[in-house]
Design goal:
Strands 1-2-3-4-5 form a 5-stranded mixed β-sheet, with helices on both faces. The protein is an alpha+beta fold and 174 residues long. 29% of the residues lie in helices and 21% in strands. The chain has a single domain, classed as Aminopeptidase (3-Layer(aba) Sandwich).
């Protein structure tokens, strides 16, 4: 784990460095961590993800989220998949503690592949990138949720992960 800057409060989570696993995607696809200069490249994919789930995340939340990805004191990460110079997919994940293991868990929060590029292995490549990165960071598990209507993605998920059998409940707090 990397050292925190000296002005970082002592209760701030330590930033776990990103691994850069070799690309396993066919052709010229490469996946790499988000960089500060990627905002304008990342934003259309982020908006595409929101459109897919028929939601609209406020601009303020988008900016805070982006800044968290770049903040070494935050346990939030992101990566982009590129075909040549064109970004064609994104993935976001968060490391968090567990009462059940010593190693952190990795919550894969957002996964999006651009329309017209789905079904070609990009989703799997992005998930495997998170698997490799989480393993390198000492995580004991990667987990995620998907909407019950996302049946195409669930076909992939059923091949590369195990269903836990748990049902999510939630209460929005105002």
């Amino acid at each position: 784990m990397g050292d925190l800057p000296s002005d970082t409060p002592p209760d701030t989570p330590r930033r776990i460095p990103l691994a850069t696993p070799p690309s396993t995607t066919p052709s010229a696809i490469r996946v790499r961590p988000l960089e500060a200069a990627d905002y304008e490249t990342w934003l259309p994919l982020w908006h595409g993800y929101q459109a897919f789930y028929k939601t609209d995340i406020p601009e303020e939340t988008t900016r805070v989220t982006w800044n968290r990805f770049l903040n070494p004191g935050e346990p939030m990460f992101g990566a982009l998949a590129f075909d040549g110079d064109k970004a064609v997919g994104l993935v976001h994940w968060i490391y968090h503690r567990s009462c059940w293991t010593v190693g952190d868990y990795c919550y894969l929060q957002d996964l999006f592949v651009a329309e017209g590029r789905r079904g070609g292995g990009l989703g799997r490549t992005l998930i495997e990138y998170v698997y490799d990165t989480a393993k390198a960071a000492g995580c004991s598990r990667v987990h995620w949720l998907t909407h019950e209507t996302n049946t195409d993605a669930m076909k992939l998920y059923d091949r590369i992960a195990d269903r836990s059998g748990f049902v999510q409940y939630r209460k929005l707090l105002s």
